[in-house]
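Supplementary Note 2. Why include the ligand at all?

Several targets in our set were suspected to adopt different conformations when bound, so apo predictions alone were not considered sufficient. For every target with a known small-molecule partner we therefore ran a joint prediction. The input for cytidine-5'-diphosphate is given below.
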Amino acid sequence: MGETPKTRLIITVDGPAGSGKTTTAKEIAARLGYRHLDSGALYRALTYALLKAGIRKSDWPRLTSDDLSGLGVRAEASVGVVDLYLGGALLGDELRTPEVTRDVAAVAKLRVVRIWLLDIQRNLGLHGSLVADGRDMGSVVFPDADLKVFLVASLEERARRRLLQDTGLHPTESEVVAEAARIHARDAIDSARELSPLRCPEGALEIDTTKLEFEEQVLAILTRVIDLTE
Ligand code: CDP
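The joint prediction is reproduced in token form.
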């Protein structure tokens, strides 16, 4: 007799910057009727709030959880998505400005930040039916996830995709080189940090998307989901 089919899965999609985690996770969630959690957006929301509050970068290592609560960042589960608010304002494009992207890895390596966000993320997964993407979804936040995916792609391809995504234009070679250097610097901080470093979680399905079409990577994951749910 086979294993009992699972329902309301928790699926994690981790990987380095520009590997396509968020677009892939969002698509998988939409096709399954699950909710999507972009955990990077949580780190970006705290970074945006710190910058907006004018708290100096040199003071960030001394932040307490009360300081973080006082910033007014909230995550609210909605239909298919997790909405992020600063005070009463729904956050969107402001989370992807170059300033936030430049500073987010420095915020994400703070212990107080990772602990503050842990319960928020786990609560969003309490009832399952969640596709969560980030750096430590399968390793730390949802270690018992039903399916763990780790996406990788060459640095150059990741830089190219990121520029195309941000500008809608095909980048020049020199733009790709400059973006690759920025991505590489952020990957280095994310991989070297003491807490929840970027790693392929044990037992994860690793997919190199460098030469894959988007639909191919989505189907590779959905095939695994079907194996678990039928
Ligand atoms: O979209 P991209 O891969 O460029 O980044 P993101 O997913 O928006 O994440 C932004 C930053 O948040 C990362 O570079 C990490 O420093 C941090 N992050 C993290 O530490 N842990 C996560 N689970 C998600 C993001």
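The chain is about 50% helix and 15% strand. The chain has a mean pLDDT of 95. Comparable summaries for the other entries are listed in the accompanying table.
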